[in-house]
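DATA SHEET
Item: assembly model
Revision: 1
Owner: S.N.
Input lines:
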Amino acid sequence: MSSDAQRQSQGYQISDSGQEIPCIALPEPNLHMEQDAEWCVIRGEDGWQELRFHDYGQLYMTPGLYERLFYDILKCNSPTTVRKLLEGQMKKAGESPETLRVFDLGAGNGMMAEELADLGIEMVVGADIIEEAALAAERDRPGLYADYFVADLTNLSLLERRKLASFRFNALTCVAALGFGDIPPRAFAEAYNLVETNGWIAFNIRDNFLEDEDQTGFAALIRRMIDEGLFSLEVQKRYQHRVATNGEPLYYAALVGRKRKSVPITWTE
Ligand SMILES: C[S@@+](CC[C@H](N)C(=O)[O-])C[C@H]1O[C@@H](n2cnc3c(N)ncnc32)[C@H](O)[C@@H]1O
């Protein structure tokens, strides 16, 4: 048996990017799950093991597993969509991405930083609430982030706040990380407030989190930011973020605009 076939029989496969990763199996296609309850099983040395999609720490621990699951299998294209939208708006405004100093919130293992590097930005700093994300970003995309904060934006220390402010960010990106028990409105507002006036804001969010019946707080916050002139929304696009495990499309909205004023944190209480 060739060594490839032998590794396959042990539960490993070679991903599109040439990495050896565990075999992944999805639940039955007729099983409907909310996005924050989705899971798959992966085959490790000790047999099949359930993995919840929101166990990001577990996902990031195996190189290539996050990309294989969300990007190859479930066809996520959010970082590319948000990047293209930002690129288009900057072009329209006659501005060059080379001037961008970006704060990438909910950075994970660096999918958005890769897009930003392709755009030719000046620099990007990442932040994520879990240590595994920072470790995976350095392992998988070394050197892309000028700095990476493992931090809770709702509870920054004075030192973290000062350090973050010293980067004088003129852009914020936040991709596939708002709502669903992930980044709350308050953390988003804190990150937004770290961006200089007229800086670029580019993010995505599940489309129904922008509707009237939204319970996450994002719909009310973003609407108020727009209505009261804090955020000038330049473009909003509804698109397929990825498919669910049963193959149904999941629609998100990508928004790009400019910060005009900071958000009073009391608005998120
Ligand atoms: C689906 S991943 C997206 C990662 C990356 N932006 C991408 O597009 O691949 C969501 C990320 O948000 C992070 N996250 C969740 N809650 C957070 C919080 N309160 N503050 C910062 N990051 C958070 C998770 O740890 C995870 O890495």
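QC remark: The chain has two domains: 3-73, 78-268.
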